[in-house]
Write a structure and sequence with these properties.
Shape: globular
CATH superfamily of the largest domain: P-loop containing nucleotide triphosphate hydrolases
Order of helices and strands: HEEEHEEEHEHEEHEHEHHEEHEEHHHH
Distance between the termini: 64 Å
Number of strands: 15
CATH topology of the largest domain: Rossmann fold
Strand content: 25-35%
Structural class: alpha/beta
Strand order of the largest sheet: 9-8-10-11-7-12-15
Helix content: 25-40%
Largest sheet: 7 strands, mixed
Length: about 400
């Protein structure tokens, strides 16, 4: 009986390992285990899109869920509350960090595994998709001796990879770099990394209080979630620390408004914020099956491209891209450097409409402009920027 139980447990562990390995081989960033009324479905997110993979069967749901929880050292008896955890997965010579989240639902717990490749997350800034002028601006920003540089974008937009790439570029023996993360997504030599644990009352704000006494030069704060964290981050920046963090807004005027709502004075916000970097990820045309096509006049006019630009690229579908026409993703960026004019507008509490107009006059390369540039270069397609940017385009 014991042998049968052991064999059954090994079966479920092997099943989970097979699903994870298959996801890695298919370049998936996330695995979704989703209980339905009669099925236990698995979906992979590849290049930002969810695809159905298989039905494991409801009879496997309980055991697979338990085995994943055991791997993450979660409470296997808790089914009513969400849980978070992680485990490492080794494939040949590569180690992946798998972040796990459970959520109770009508037919059981939904489990999402996010896959982090330790090697791929350390991408050089030059390889993220930045244009040359944007790269120069980024390099100027990140060499500021103090202040705050913020990144914005939805979940899965590449903010984590971008911030780690910056830290990788700044990671020198003469710098004390501290990160506060929830959770730590990549272990980088030379950094002092702290895992936020709100269940143990170790919040971003509380950790930040201790960090300023650790003589840091640079602090990467995983996320500014509340007023207290914002206040602590601002105070740290005022003492001469360079702060990197993420913030959940979609443009600069909204970010400034939100900061003021958090109790940060407009003059302090204008003084401390050095720049804001908005990020999105778009799929790249498959290099194996890419083919030229002629864009319609309507499409060219919408994108503001010259009629002399005739030929663009799209993927027709092949075995490499699994008939999707895309392989991999690249970033599109909007970088707003806070110059004297922008600071003055913030200090004078100009309305958001004024800031929008001011930014447009400065000819800052917007997210849309950056995306259009990628289309013109044949890196991505109109359909992809419409999907990511939410811009409706007539064919």
């Amino acid at each position: 009986m014991d042998n049968q139980t052991d064999n059954g447990q090994m079966l479920y562990v092997d099943l989970v390992q097979d699903v994870v390995l298959s996801a890695i081989n298919n370049r998936a960033s996330d695995i979704h285990f989703e209980p339905q009324r009669e099925t236990f479905d698995v979906r992979y997110r590849v290049d930002g899109i969810l695809y159905p993979v298989k039905n494991l069967g409801r009879n496997l749901q309980e055991e697979v869920t338990s085995k994943i929880k055991v791997l993450c050292k979660m409470d296997i008896t808790e089914h009513r509350l969400p849980q978070d955890g992680h485990f490492e997965f080794k494939d040949q010579d590569k180690i992946y960090n798998i972040r796990v989240s459970t959520l109770p639902g009508l037919y059981g717990e939904t489990i999402v595994l996010r896959i982090f490749d330790r090697e791929e997350i350390l991408i050089k800034l030059e390889s993220l998709g930045l244009e040359e002028d944007q790269l120069r601006l980024i390099n100027n920003l990140i060499t500021s001796p103090s202040g705050m540089i913020l990144t914005t974008g939805p979940t899965g937009s590449g903010k984590t990879t971008f911030l780690y790439s910056i830290l990788h570029a700044l990671n020198k023996p003469d710098k004390n770099i501290v990160t506060l993360e929830d959770p730590i997504e990549f272990q980088m030599a030379g950094l002092r990394q702290t895992n936020i644990n709100e269940a143990m009352n170790l919040t971003f704000a509380k950790a930040m209080r201790s960090v300023v006494r650790q003589d840091p030069d640079i602090v990467m704060l995983g996320e500014i979630r509340d007023d207290e964290t914002a206040q602590m981050a601002i105070q740290a920046a005022l003492t001469g620390i360079l702060i990197f963090s993420t913030f959940h807004t979609f443009d600069v005027p909204a970010l400034v408004t939100r900061f003021i709502e958090m109790g940060i004075s407009s003059s302090v916000a204008a003084q401390i914020i050095k720049g804001v970097i908005s990020i999105r990820l778009v799929r790249k045309v498959c290099f194996s099956c890419r083919e030229p096509y002629v864009m319609t006049d309507t499409q060219r006019q919408f994108l503001g491209l010259s009629s002399n630009v005739q030929v663009f690229q799209r993927g027709k579908g092949c075995n490499l891209c699994q008939a999707k026409g895309y392989t991999g993703r690249t970033g599109i960026f909007e970088i707003v450097y806070f110059d004297d004019e922008i600071r003055a507008a913030i200090i004078e509490k100009k309305p958001a409409s004024y800031l929008y107009e001011l930014l447009s006059k400065k000819n800052i390369k917007s997210l849309k402009t950056s995306a259009i540039s990628k289309v013109a270069q044949g890196v991505t397609t109109i359909e992809e920027i419409v999907r990511v940017m939410g811009v409706f385009l007539q064919a």
